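Thread: quick sanity check before group meeting

JM: Hey all, I'm pulling together slides for Thursday and realized we never actually wrote out the predicted structure for the chain we discussed last week. Dropping the sequence here so it's in one place. If anyone has concerns about the input, flag it before I start.
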Amino acid sequence: METAIIDDRIMEELRDAVGGENVFDTIEERGCHSFDATQERSLPELVIRPHTTEHVARVVTIANRNSIPIYPRGSGTGLLGDAGYIRCGIVLDLKNMDKILALNVRDLTVTVQPGVLIRDLQDVAAKQKLFYPPGPGSAGFSTIGGNVAECSGGVTGMKYGVTRDYVLALEAVLPDGSIINTGRKTLKSVAGYDLTRFLVGSEGTLGIYTQITLKLLPMPQKRGTIISYFRDFHDAMKTSDSIQVENRILPRSIEFADMECIKAFGEVSEVTIPEGAKALLLIDVDGNEKNVTNDVSKIEGICRENSALKCEIVKREDERNSLWQMMKSVLPSLFKIATTEFSEAFCVPRSKVLEVLEKVYGLSATTSIRVAAFGHIGEGHIHLNIMSDKREDEVLIRGFIGKVVKEVVSIGGTLKAGQGVDDVKTEFVELELTDQEIGLMKDLKRMFDPKDIMNPGKIFT
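JM (edit): ok, ran it. Output follows.
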């Protein structure tokens, strides 16, 4: 932690601005806000829980005037240190801004505060037979504000797109404390520059969202699920390609997990895993009843044609839910089997998925590091868990990640696929972006935030 910069005068000013009951300086509260799902820790000086846009604006105004760093926080479920990258200053915990403000069935829109949980939003929409597709595995406890800040995708991205495809309008507090409204509650708006999408994915470095208007879709009539196990990841990749490229089927999702993940599943799930399985695909399709029935039948045949050890059409809703819960449990399951673990995510062109996995496994074979790979393989989005049983291997793991990042970028991939840029990958941003791009982005950051108080050090050091 850096030198304290919030003195008694500033503390009193902040309490007057939002109410003393919303300002916390105990070691317990600060400690609870010093980390996210990565367990990387960095202690803030102060935690503030605003309830309104005006509260946020007042806090930011005071922070800007006194050059105090501010770190917006959702629910702290990030896997790349997004909520643990703190240099002194204030954590602005938005958990109390959790209202669904308006749902318009005719316009297919919903306006929410940033602290609304993704699952709660999806449940409210479902009651109106509407559908908000983006949602990470942590949808039950991650917030819409955090998802917009990271431009998260989730398992349905290959068919339905990612968060930015659903954000129509924003209310946000800028680094000087002013309030801006961007976008319109319409599907089309090209008046001026697209400030809405400029702010989406900015990781809390340009402003703080206080209201978010999202597009909704009609709920699909039917959903079908297939789970298939393979002898190796080559057969799994061939199956994914055959479904999409050769047979022109666009599933709702194609999820992949490798041998290490399958081992972890065996510890937390009652699913029967066939002997010799080293890869699995969990495939969802949706649409009208006729199309779903046809697609499920075709996909089952494609899996068997590609030497599936076991292929099963899921008949019951509880079975489907159990399988998806198994997939969502992969990270906590892996945390149990390794002393030291780093989680990273990348996205590569679909045609390069096999190549990059072969490279990753090849690099792993030359070290004491174990790798578990899973992800939204239908869109080239790969999650890597790099694991070791030795705590002293952290330096080795960081070097391994560097090699993987260079490989990903060299084949046209990106080091940011829907999560933030963590401290490991920040140094590699220049591999993906040109000097001209980085210079322009830094100029924009300085224009929005000349005192660099909004999540300082994030994205660019």
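AS: nice. The mean pLDDT is 89. The chain has four domains: 8-93, 100-218, 222-331, 338-435.
JM: adding both to the slides.
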